[in-house]
Design goal:
Radius of gyration: 30 Å
Strand content: 25-35%
Oligomer: single chain
Distance between the termini: 77 Å
Number of strands: 34
Shape: flat
Structural class: alpha+beta
């Protein structure tokens, strides 16, 4: 009797392991002529146990949602070429510490690099068929899929995963054979063999990613003289960036990492909070298991968080498996779904990157739609969709989940494919980080006690606590009072860039040197003792000697990142002397008090000290020097007692000679006035009192960002902290 029960249990287990869901049967039917290939995969794993068979079922069931954007046919010579690249990397850097590898840019191997480049440029250009939108169900063969699953199962075994605890993580972070829409030309085992010596061992994820970062960096350096004409699939990682973007790099980096056992997924933001473009990156767990972002192959875990990813807007994960809580499934039968959200392969991860709340807005218009959307402002006066919400008709409200604090959103819906405003633009403002909402990058799952608020009569009330206001949260809409007028004193159209600030900090400690032989002894004349500002500035110093050569160098061999420099001194009859470029004025008072400079700008011949070193002296503030030093040869000695310079900048200040338009938000953007800039500031009179303003440069430049104007100061949206 016991034996009979045992056989019944075994039979039930086998049936449950090999049973086919309706979704799997549908996928097999959609595969058409390719069905035998997929059946072969299922048969291969049906007697291998629960994890192997469920892995095959998961991939095949979701393959109907996946396809390649382009089909890329690559000459086998590319593989041989990159074997040579790898061999040269090992020969040069085998015994060199990672930190030293990253800094090395010597010329010792130039001839080998040029020879490699010459041989690369003789290989036939890849054949690319664009828009070959065929479902993976119709194109992926059995041997490819079996190889992928077998490789993934080895990682399952090596990590000691358990089905009940880890399969949901495994099937998304390890198992997939593709990331998004790249063409899967390489088997997983082939990718592993390319990188296993670098990435497969017992060291931490951080160490593996550092090895990968340095390896790709030096392979690009080795291949500096290549001239790729088209994408090369995974080989794009090896060549200097050309026709590439973070989407492409993230795709292939994810594939490499998963093949080598590093759990990885692809995440992205539809729009930065302070820029209009998108960004894509990888995410992997740190030593504590918390998922951390990084833009591969150039960064390690969280390495570019402070400089970039921290400023993402809404954030989504691109999944392999379909997600039921996406517009793809939630929309009504005939409801229009915007292209960017017309996919089931999305998982909202904004809660990991920002402090967020669930927001309920009253439904003020008649609509049969089941969905509404959140959009963000762009500098071409358009709206970019960044999120969706569920229309709950029974409660006459729209529910938006994972809404970040201190971010401006425009609620919209669609009538067919026409975008319509459905409520005032809003910001859920908090002057400090609420303690009851997780901080960024501290949790992997949303807490059960989500802060849920309803916007009622301009206030935020806790949804499940009647009439109780949400503490420390304000619901701010964009209002305008045209009966009240204010004066605006403006200095910029866009905030200082974070990366540029880092460059300025590295100039603190830079030296100006003088000497009479180009490669001989130099005397130190002055040291920069403060962090430079992104405007033309002057440093004067005591110097009682005349030198033929003057050199300016950054500390620690860092790039000088100088956009413009002038050498100042008393008039010299042996040199071309002109008036120096005037220093900036930031108010009418400064203009009235400005005095003429008693020193002259003395011209010489720029010394070639590195790549594009002459850009520091071309009178163009938009160009800049990337080398670690710049120099001037005056041909005959001259006494220099001052310099004027401006560091690399984005020219987003007020530029004399440019015209600017000021707009204010009053239900839409409305023009106030156009002014011509004579100095580095603009004064606009009789401006309507509005929540938000926008300054457009009509002459040049593209970067602009709306701003608040409070107590005589600009506070740029999403960048400067505002106390309201």
């Amino acid at each position: 009797m016991k034996a009979t029960y045992l056989w019944i249990i075994i039979l039930l287990v086998l049936v449950s392991c090999t049973s086919r869901s309706p979704e799997l049967e549908e996928a097999l039917k959609l595969a058409g002529d390719n069905r035998p290939e997929l059946e072969a995969v299922l048969n291969h794993f049906k007697d291998r146990g629960k994890v192997p068979y469920k892995s095959a079922c998961f991939l095949i069931t979701n393959m109907k949602y996946h396809e390649s954007k382009d089909k890329i046919l690559i000459d086998n010579l590319y593989h041989d070429y990159f074997i040579r690249t790898d061999s040269l990397y090992k020969a040069i850097f085998n015994d060199v510490p990672l930190s030293e590898q990253l800094r090395y840019n010597g010329q010792k191997y130039d001839s080998l690099r040029r020879d490699l480049g010459d041989s690369f440029n003789t290989i036939s250009v890849p054949e690319i068929t664009s828009k070959a939108y065929l479902s993976d169900l119709e194109t992926i063969r059995a041997d490819f899929l079996i190889d992928n699953i077998e490789e993934a199962l080895q990682i399952w075994e090596a990590n000691g995963y358990t089905y009940k605890k880890d399969f949901d993580f495994f099937k998304e972070f390890i198992l997939p054979y593709r990331t998004t829409n790249e063409f899967p030309v390489h088997k997983r085992s082939e990718i592993r063999k390319m990188y296993e010596a670098l990435l497969i061992d017992t060291v931490s994820i951080r160490t593996k990613l550092e090895r990968y970062k340095v390896y790709v960096n030096k392979c690009r350096w080795i291949n500096q003289h290549t001239s790729p004409k088209e994408h090369l699939g995974i080989y794009d990682l090896f060549v200097p960036k050309f026709k590439m973007d973070c989407h492409n790099m993230t795709n292939w980096s994810c594939n490499v990492f998963r093949a080598c056992g590093i759990p990885t997924m692809y995440e992205y933001t539809p729009k930065w909070t302070d820029r209009d473009n998108r960004h894509f990156w990888c995410v992997s767990p740190d030593f504590a298991g918390i998922l951390q972002p990084y833009t591969a192959p150039d960064n390690n875990l969280r390495e570019d968080w402070e400089t970039d990813i921290k400023y993402a807007g809404k954030v989504y994960r691109s999944t392999f498996g379909a997600q039921k809580n996406t517009p793809y499934f939630m929309a009504g039968e005939d409801e229009f779904i915007p292209e960017e959200f017309n996919t089931p392969l999305l998982s909202d991860q904004t809660f990991r990157y920002h402090q967020t709340v669930t927001l309920r807005l009253p439904l003020k218009m008649k609509t049969g739609n089941k969905l509404a959307y959140l959009a963000m402002f762009t500098v071409d006066n358009k709206l970019v969709l960044v999120g969706w919400g569920n229309v709950e008709h029974s409660k006459s409200e729209i529910v938006f989940e994972q809404v970040p604090l201190n971010t401006l959103f425009f609620p919209v819906c669609y009538d067919d494919n026409k975008m319509l405003d459905i409520s005032e633009p809003f910001i859920i403002h908090s002057s400090h980080a609420p303690e009851n909402i997780p901080q960024p990058l501290t949790v992997n799952k949303q807490p059960k006690d989500i802060v849920d608020v309803s916007a009622i009569n301009g206030k935020l009330l806790l949804t499940h606590k009647k009439n109780k206001e949400a503490p420390n949260l304000k619901y701010i809409t964009l209002t305008c009072d045209t009966s009240q007028k204010v004066q605006l004193h403006l200095l910029r159209k866009y905030p200082e860039k974070r990366r540029l600030k880092a460059f300025y900090e590295k100039l603190n400690g830079a030296c100006l040197l003088g000497g009479n032989q180009e490669e001989g002894h130099y005397d130190t004349l002055c040291i920069v003792k403060e962090i430079p500002v992104p405007y033309l500035q002057e440093i004067t110093f005591e110097n009682h000697k005349q030198y033929r050569y003057y050199r300016f160098s950054a500390p620690n061999g860092e790039p000088v990142n100088i956009a413009h420099m002038e050498f100042l001194g008393d008039y010299s009859s042996n040199h071309n002397c002109t008036s120096p470029t005037p220093l900036p004025n930031f108010s009418e008072t400064e203009v009235a008090l400005q005095k003429s400079c008693s020193l002259y700008r003395i011209h010489g011949t720029p010394v070639r000290t590195g790549s594009k070193s002459e850009y520091a002296f071309d009178n163009d503030f938009n160009t800049y020097v990337g080398s670690s030093k710049i120099g001037m040869d005056f041909k005959s000695p001259v006494q220099i007692t001052g310099i004027r310079f401006i560091p690399r900048n984005a020219n987003n200040m007020i530029v004399p000679g440019n015209s600017y338009m000021l707009l204010y938000y009053d239900g839409e953007w409305k023009e106030h006035k156009i002014l011509y800039a004579e100095h580095h500031f603009l004064d606009f009179e009789n401006v309507p009192l509005a929540t938000l303003y926008w300054l457009k440069n009509l002459t040049e430049g593209k970067e602009e960002l709306p701003f608040f104007y409070i107590n005589g100061k600009q506070y740029f949206l999403h960048v400067n902290e505002v106390l309201l």
